[in-house]
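Quick sanity check, ABC transporter, ATP-binding protein:
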Amino acid sequence: TGELGDVSALAGHGPVAAPDGPTRAGAGSKEEPPAALSPDAGVEADRPRPVPPVLTPEAETSRGASSLLARFRRLMLESSWRQTRGCLMLAAANGIASGAALVSLLPASVALGSGAPRWGLSFGGWLVTFGICGVVAAVTEFQGQRRGMSGALGFMHDVHHAVGDRIARLPLRWFNADSAGTLSRAVSQEMVALGESAAHFMYMLTSTSAACVVVWAGSWAWDWRLGLLLTVAAPLFAGLVRAARRLLDHGKSVSEPAERELATRIVEIARCQGALRSCRAATGYSRLASAFDDGARASRRSLWWETAGNVVNGALSQVIVVAMIALTASYAVSGTMEPLVAVAIIGMCLRFTTMLDDIGASVMGLEERRQMMNHLDAVMDAELMAEPEARAMLPDPGAVELNDVVFGYRADEPVLGGVSMNVPARSMCAIVGPSGSGKTTIARLIARFWDTGSGTVRVSGTDVRDMPTAQLMEQLSMVFQDVYLFDDTLDANVRIGDPAADDEQVRWAADLAGVTEIVNRLPHGWSTRVGEGGRALSGGERQRVSIARALLKRAPIVLLDEATSALDAENEANIVAAMQELRRTSTLIVIAHKLETIAAADQVIVLDDAGQVAQCGSHENLVEVDGPYRSFWEQRTRARGWALVSRAE
């Protein structure tokens, strides 16, 4: 049997008080979602479902015309935006002061050479002006960089929260191999680069642009020839920057698919360590090795394009600088320009072209991060699963009904082929069948991790598509096969079932699920941290914590996916007792192979390989007639009777 998806506690279910722990997708089963999900088949006309976005380079570059600053603003809270806005205002002030200081050197040089005032000030006056501009530039630089860093940290904080809130509301089908790798990069290494954009590149671009405008205006006021020289140089530099950016963009597009594939394979090998080690393939995973090789080849090709871009942006720009210096020097040699003024103009030209280089570097730095922003936009723009805002009426609390449900993770690979079942309130239903028959898929559809291709799923008498996610989660508790515990105390992990529960209720659930026995032998009792994923506990112990969550929540409906598969015989009695308590207060839908659990069910539903209901009835009735259930029962009974005997001497 496949397992409930590992992002089930996040995908499509904003208020996650209900889930009792996500699991990783099972392998080798028709039920598991494929690497690239396509829209489900057979969508009902009156219930359209959103199609998950595809994170392709073509889709990403289509966003290029949008304002990068506006996209930063979209993800920021007001406090972070105030810091960033203040940073940009200070950057503009810094640029104006720096440009004014540079322009003041022209009249200062003439005043120094001639001894006469220029533009109303003597050399000493221009020296004071230069000093004032320098002080203003230094102060605004310090304050602007400080605010920029605060804004960058705020941006990263805001984005982590925004993305976390968003993915908690996305449908599970959005999460595929490509999106997992892209998302992991977007919220880790790329987040730092985007923060650098907010703190550094935007500041530099604003400051140098303002300085260039001041220098350009001052040059025209000083001498039309200097103004014309800078006016001609600016578009030439802009053209070179644009050409260099195109080369860099092409280089990035060459390496991006391989980088995305490598990130996906790294996530994959981290999640599948158990399966890989069992096959002795943990250190020789060919798909990861192939991704590394492809990434290296793509990086080499990308480097050629990026090198060409740097040559265009660097070497050719220096040709323009040399031409400007030569032209100015020729004026000085011919006597049409004073040597001291020529030196000042050459210095201004050098500084002006340096500022243009800085603008080009800032633009290219921001362009390189545009694709990173595209990854975040793919998450923030992904369509949520349609749901009503108003709470629905629940005419039959605790009941579950599937009516002619057809579903497939791929349009051409149906998993369920017209399943109908009715589970009355406060009854227990066991679902059995061969691997890949759709048992776990039924649980996923009940929890609305996916929508059906056709047919309806009703919980408490209402179609799951007609109630808000929060209300649906109030109806369900889920005990997953591979329980996930958060890196927190044992007490906090149990309280996920009901954060408002008092200590007495928590201890009651713990006693019944066998968690108290775990607490008594842990060094810090209830305050013991269980580690990320609950690695400090065994699989059976994590399972008991999950059962305690379900007991504490007291939801009308409990979904158990092989709830006893990870337990040894000594501890299984605790879980059986807990299941009896859950059965007394809730509807139980169990996916398991334990004979005792199946026999205790009020109703047994048998699925065949085609994902259809082959048999339905009580254990007593089904075991008496020929059919798949009787064959299954006899096979399991024979396997259970095996025993180890001593070898004869």
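Posting the structure with no commentary besides this: The two ends are 42 Å apart (CA to CA).
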